[in-house]
Amino acid sequence: ATKIGAQGTKVKELKEKKADKAEVEAEVAKLLALKQELTALDPSHALAVQDKKKKKKETKPKEAPKQGPSKKELRMQERAKKAQDAEEKTKQDGADAFGDYEVVMSKDMTSRVYTEVRDLDETKVGQKVWVRARTHATRGKGSLVFLVARQGLQTVQCVASAEACGKPLVAYVQKLSLETIVDVEATVAKAEVSSCTQNSVELAMSKVFAVSKALPDLPFQIADASRNENTAAKEEGAITVGLDTRLNHRVIDLRTPASQAIMRIKSKIALTFATFLDAKGFVGVQSPKLLGGSSEGGSSVFSLQYFGKPACLAQSPQLYKQMLAACSGFEKVYEIGPVFRAEDSNTRRHLCEFTGLDLEMAIVEHYYEVLDLFGKLMAHIFHTIETECASELEIVSQVYPFEPFKYLKQAPLRLSFAEGIALLRQAGVDEEKQGDFDDLSTENEKLLGDVVASKFQTDFFMMDKYPLSIRPFYTMPDPDTFLDPKCPPHQHLSNSFDMFMRGQEITSGAQRIHDHKLLTERVLHCHNSPGHGGPAPESIQSYLDAFKYGAHPHGGGGIGLERVCMLYLNLSNIRKVSLFPRDPSRLAP
């Protein structure tokens, strides 16, 4: 121990004197050798023990791998692992939470249940739902994304946050093109959203998938096609969409809320027509549209070749519904079907193909039985539109403002043709502009409608006893004038009528001739009369023969579905109520 102390002092002095490095190292080696000898002789010696502790301290870094990382290193490793796990989870969740579907090819069926947008309300708050709809609008706001989903007439706001759903899902929704069809899984939450039809709830999205993507460049924006027709032109910077552009891209235009509402109202009219008559014992029928001759004569017929034979498209189901009601034992029939008119007319109220609502019925004594039925039928249709299409009417009015349709609820106004002419005379229309036995011009129809609306507070009325000379060959003559030898033929009247809405004709009807002899005479008379026209007897021989074997007295009429819808809504053009209108200049889409 003494030697170790002396050698240690020597080493210290050399270091203080800054002696040569080699000399110091040599003396240090001697000191270490002395300490090793002492440790071998007495391991418990204080100098030996002190030397072991130092050795442990010196060799501690080499033992670090056995002891593990430090607390700081552990915290850093934990944060790195969490970040990695979050990244992996985002990738994994992304595969299940958002993305584009493969083409739906009916490969599989799942138990997934979809909820209609119209059914989303406060009763479903807290429930998880699936919704399929179109992207009506999208917008980002900080870490949030909002999507307005549209399904038919209904819209609902959907929202997602980066915190709840992850940034990738939010970014995916923001990039969705408008009109893309999406599937959304979401939880219904209570909210006030005045811009959507479902204004008391919103959807908190958890998953979003594109079912069918729309091209980002639409022919026009749904929002632009949904502006108020009367005020859009006055709005600074507002873009409006013309009718031709709408019709050229009809499938886009039909997606607008106003178009959706119009077509639903039109559908309701046709359905109401059928259900009303079903309840009255009428039978729905489907008559042929390919004919060997024209149904009513005249030049407004589409001719075609039928396996080498001349044929045409039906101008109406007229002859067949007569044969069914009067001759075939059905007695009361109706039909909803296409009507073809080859009229080279490009007016706002004419189409070359439209939908006819036709009825024909046996009568007992008087053709007013037909008028009574028509009056009740039309009142029922008007009432149904009012009560069952209130929301659709409101949507239409936001784009195409109109005055509510007025009608007499107890019984419709009936005027004779002569009374109608008298009202026109009072309004200043002289004989040069409207003869007593001439058919009404479009201008005079509108004027008469205005006079009636002002005088009788109704937009709907009937007018009967039209001059026989302006009605088809199958129309029953009025007995008081036709059988009066003193009455000139040009003053002969008929048991016929028209119905009007807002001053425009929607229906033409009459009692039909059921007597074979009289019917044949009238066919010949009309066919040979200049200016009247009518089919040649031989072209409708099967029709004429049907009345040889006993036929009921009968009558009926045909309603233009598109005109009823157009005039009830007071729309400016009939093409707005036709899904894919056909006129002289349009055969597509």
Number of strands: 17
Mean pLDDT: 92
Low-confidence segments, given as residue ranges, are: none
Question: How does the overall form come out from the CA principal axes?
Answer: rod-shaped
Strand content: 15-25%
Topology readout:
Blueprint: H1 2-17, H2 21-41, H3 46-59, H4 64-67, H5 71-97, E1 98-100, E2 128-141, E3 144-151, E4 154-161, H6 162-165, H7 167-175, E5 181-190, E6 201-212, H8 243-248, H9 250-253, H10 257-279, E7 283-284, E8 290-291, E9 303-306, E10 309-313, H11 318-327, E11 332-340, E12 353-362, H12 368-388, H13 390-399, E13 413-416, H14 417-426, H15 442-456, E14 460-464, H16 479-482, E15 496-501, E16 504-512, H17 516-528, H18 541-545, E17 554-560, H19 561-568
Parallel strand pairs: 1-6, 4-6, 7-11, 13-14
Antiparallel strand pairs: 2-3, 2-5, 3-4, 5-6, 8-10, 9-10, 11-12, 12-17, 14-15, 15-16, 16-17
